[in-house]
Amino acid sequence: MGFLEGKRYLIVGIASKKSIAWGIAEAMHKQGAELAFTYQNDKLKSRVVGAAEEFGSSEALCFPCDVASDEQIEAVFSGLAKQWDGLDGIVHAVGFAPAEELDGNFVDVATREGFRIAHDISSYSLVALASAGHEMMKGRQGSILTLTYHASQQTVPNYNVMGLAKASLEAGVRYLAASLGPEGIRVNGISAGPVRTLAASGIKKFRSMLDANAAKAPLRRNITIEEVGNCAAFLCSDMASGITGEITYVDAGANTVAMADE
Ligand code: NAD
Ligand code: 0WE
After folding, report:
1. Is pLDDT of 1 > 90?
2. How far is the CA of 203 from the centre of ligand 2 (A)?
């Protein structure tokens, strides 16, 4: 019997089989969880319905949700409440900044509108989902999980405004943990090492970043979405009942190294 048997989670952020959210859904499904899903737009609907089928859920548990829209976020939980009498957790695996912000020297490419969008989609959306979704988690020791990246703490070329948005997201994890802790709801983040997903596909020199990261990491390799998935399943489960407001690194140790050997 899996350690998530009888638990129900909402997965936000599947765009393809390479998505970190896909790896998380797979790991949670293996542990017996029941899953619901959202898709950003109609273009991604079939991918997400495919994920639902693969992980034992029907299309009725797939909801449209552009996280820029409060109405769509509300509609997800009112739709979910018609099928489930409660919810045990939310996985937030969403990040976005306009592409022009992620290519060039920070001061040259930064704009007010790019900053607004990056922080809205990548950071505020966690707060919005928590605000709209916590009612359904009442009395169930719920768990909220997001995905972040170490460029929130130390600079990475071209990550630019996303680094600021991830720093805000990580502060959001702590404030939401303080806010929802009295309801028994835990809020955590996983800081993942680089993975080739759709969100990474447009990024210049991503291959050499992967290679440099593998060379620096104590484990001398990059991580997989399966490894992020297993950590996510643990953090969302009752086995992690004492952990909240925390950022856990799944990065083969790369963030712990100040100077690479060789
Ligand atoms: P991905 O492209 O597979 O997933 C990103 C998701 O964000 C997509 O499903 C997309 O639909 C969704 N999204 C973007 N804008 C949205 C909006 N307005 N409304 C709703 N959804 C929206 O890429 P991924 O790498 O799996 O990204 C998932 C998370 O992991 C992100 O927060 C990302 O920052 C984080 N992360 C990624 C890496 C990496 O190297 N790939 C490393 C660390 C953290
Ligand atoms: O969080 C991310 C991806 C963030 C991302 C990617 C895109 C590409 C397409 C946000 N917005 C967009 N907007 C687009 O139009 N990662 C951690 C992966 C990533 O992205 C980088 C990285 C790494 C690692 C960008 C620059 C440098 C390193």
Report:
1. no
2. 6
User: For residue range 159-205, what is the model confidence (pLDDT) as tens digits?
Assistant: 999 999 999 999 999 999 999 999 999 999 999 999 999 999 889 99
| Catalytic residue list contains 159 | yes
Q: Which residue has a Cα nearest atom 21 of ligand 2?
A: 159
pLDDT digits (tens, 9 = 90+) for 116-138: 999 999 999 999 999 999 999 99
Q: Is the CB of 97 under 6 A from ligand 2?
A: yes
| pTM beyond cutoff 0.90 | yes
Q: Which ligand is nearest to the CA of 91?
A: 1
Which of 9, 39, 149, 249 is the catalytic position? 149
| Residue 114 · residue 164 · CB < 8 Å | no
Q: Which of 115, 126, 128 is nearest to 165 (CA)?
A: 115
Burial of 113 (0-12, 13-18, 19+ CB in 10 A): exposed
Run of H or E including 201: helix 198-201
CA-nearest residue for atom 14, ligand 2, is 99
